[in-house]
Amino acid sequence: MKAVSLAPLQVRQWGGHSITVNICVMKRFIMYVCTLAAIIVFAGSHYAHACTGIALKAADGSRIVARTVEWANEAMNCGYAIVPRGHVQKSFTPEGVTGLEFKARYGYIGIYTDYEQFVVEGVNEAGLSAGLFFFPGFGEYPQFDKKTEDRSISDLQFVSWVLSNFSSIEEVKKGIKDIRVISMDSRIGTVHWRLSEPGGRIVVLEYKKGEPVFHENPIGTFTNSPGFEFHITNLRNYVNLHAGAAENQLLGQGIKPENPLELSPLGGGSGMLGLPGDFTPPSRFVRAAFFSMSAPILPTSFEMVTQAFHILNNFDIPVGAQHKADQIPQGLPSATQFTAVTDLSTLRLYYRTAWNQNIRCLDLKRIDFSKVEYRTNPLDACKVQPVEMIFQ
Length: 392
Hints:
The chain is an alpha+beta fold. It is 17% helix and 28% strand. The protein has a single domain, classed as Penicillin V Acylase, Chain A (4-Layer Sandwich).
């Protein structure tokens, strides 16, 4: 693990003038430029990012939210951040690290992708969960305005801002009036967010014409583009699907009523014949909705945590399914780079990765967020799948 510390000041000679520079600030800005360049390279590759989210409820009333994170172009260096109360962050803008500065009222754990500032999934000590999902081609943020720079926050840091400041969805809805969510660069595309409370309320936040729009999400399912309202409407195209087996059908009654042909299902689960199987966001939304709605309601939250992992197995995208033969990345065992499941009742965040399918757990209740230092750690210390040998 690593703790963040400020670097000393140094004097540099630029253009004949002596300038005092904070090395930490320089490194942050250099990393910002590199981050932006890397994101823009793949911004046009819609197949690269494909996330699927579900929500479940246990018989004891516990609530579970779970999701996958896909990136099909290359292996990401994902990690988790432990963020204490009082930790100060500053947002990126198109001009550098010059945006909104915010101080954490609540401690939280967040999972980031490549760069620790960009938390895509997390939960705070108050039980509020937030997740970022890519939303290319449909969202529209406010334009960056230098006059409101100190109220501007990058969309990729919005999850951190939510987890730092709020304990409920209503608080987020009030607080968002005081900020401007912006993009570091319009070529990156847009994102939308899922917010969840321990009591079961889940909302989707999307930006349309520069304004935040909140949608209540009664089923907890979430994917990517198009907008959330489309996905809910699209479910009506599959109103015929149901769990279990389809009923036998008699054919030929009009031709030979005395000897009709009886058709019976070929196997179990025939009630879901017609369920779309591709990896596009609309198809994943439909599958995730039906799988989560038909899942058994088990007694405890941990049983539902394991159930969530089993459901999301169906959204583990194999490498090659989204690529042409000559474009398959090396060193990437699955486009689904990690799967995360959050138990909002026990405040535990579980995860597994493409390199290590063993489930690991981060327990917020074991952390004193008033004393712990800010730190980050890779999701995988070693990117090799461990194997338990039965016979030595």
